[in-house]
Fold each of these.
Amino acid sequence: MTTTPKNGVGRICAPPLLLAVLALAAFYLPGASAAMQFEPGRWWNVLFCHFAHWTADHLLWDVLAFAALGMFCCRFSAGRFWLAIGLSALAVPFAVILLQPEITSYRG
């Protein structure tokens, strides 16, 4: 008899891995990162800019940290994972613009 692990411990949560794969695809698709970066006046990129990265190192460390932490959090509550992703995806670009006005574009 098999039992389902309590609180999702021991199971793999796919959403963080899917988002990491999208970031990898955006980096290697020519022109995608530049098109997705957030700049003042390009408000439609608020959600997409998180998939854009400046360098392979930037991408690697972001994807590794995001996938590891995301899988850990998602295993306990997929709903809270998506809530945190949604809120932070909206908050980060605006915080960059408000708190670091000298930054003219943002990626990942």
Amino acid sequence: MRAQRETETRRDSLAYDLTFDCVQCGYCLPVCPTYESMEKETHSPRGRINLVKMAAEGNIDLAQLTEPIDLCLGCRNCEVVCPTHVEYGAIWESAKTVLEQERHRPAAVKAFRAFLFQTVFPRRAMLRLMGDTVWLYQKSGLRRLVHKVGILKRLPHNLRAFEAILPPVESPKRRRERTRQRTAAHGQAKGTVAFFTGCIMDEMFHRTNRRTEQLLARAGYDVVVPLEQTCCGALHSHAGARNAAKELAKRNIAAFEATGADYIVDNAGGCGAMLSEYGKLLADDPEWRERAKDFARRVRDVSQLLVGHEWTWRKSVDEVVTYQRSCHMTNVQNVTEEPIALLKSIPGVTYREMAHPEQCCGSAGIYNVIHFDEATAILDTKMARTKETGAATIVTTNPGCLLQMTLGVEREGMGDQVRVVHLVDLMAEALGLEET
């Protein structure tokens, strides 16, 4: 009887019922980055779904799920091509949650995870401290000293790689100048948008955020920035900390409801995907269900509001440009054509699509830090396809993609010939806002 109860509980926890939607047809195999790079059935979507089903039925141990589930990028390419509309993301996240509950981590690792998920990402003061620390490291001469004495050689190779591509962080004074909670539209307002600044985005790419607000205002929107907003919860959810993600979602819903905005706008594909799925995240919470659905209905990527506006361009870019799609923006938010339309509207841009543009670059939140070698193998394939375009500029719409593609450019020795920029920053350049 006890074994039967445990099996029933595991089936509920592992989204067992959803696994039956998979008919094992194999349509997902060609679009799965880990299946392409690892060539293992267990590391394909249909293989992982079958493992989840077997674990839910008690036919395999949960331990046999760990590697296949952990090495999944969560890009959800498989959902787009699936003829039976399998909710792979829900199955995968249920497995991540169950595995995290069952996993026996060293006390130090548990404490570090708790520090990141409970103290750093949800608290703007901690993120600000992190940004200030990176700025000081870059500007004080400490970075040059660290390189000179060889301290970096003692770090793991993944940390060394990402230290080399850290973006230049703006000064604490500049980042803290956001005293305005509202930016007025240029001309008659089309409506009001509430801007989701993100946690890492606002500290490491603050200039991009500032330009996002400027572009929205130029496109005719009053822009409000709720200071009570917090982390979207994507990293928590993908790490199996689903309850923590729900609490962050509730905080954001309350903060953005108070603005009365028509739309909730983001400029980071990973964050936008998470925000757009708050309705699913809180579907089992009677108090928050409808509020979450209403919130999700109003979420838009910034490109959706900027496309179609008649811009007054001041500068011709005159470069071959390719676009690295954010997996979550493409597969979850279903935003595909707007960024490309904006790129093609910029004077001088010669747009060239890379082969298999839907394939992930290997960033996937912090996947590229935790699973560096696996992510790098995926990145190398992506870079080979990028090089075929002859592009001098790689445009992204997600900070993780931007860092990962920058790493790829450096690995290929193309740092002097190729740049990686956010779509908002390229638009700002062509509009003459590059010094703002």
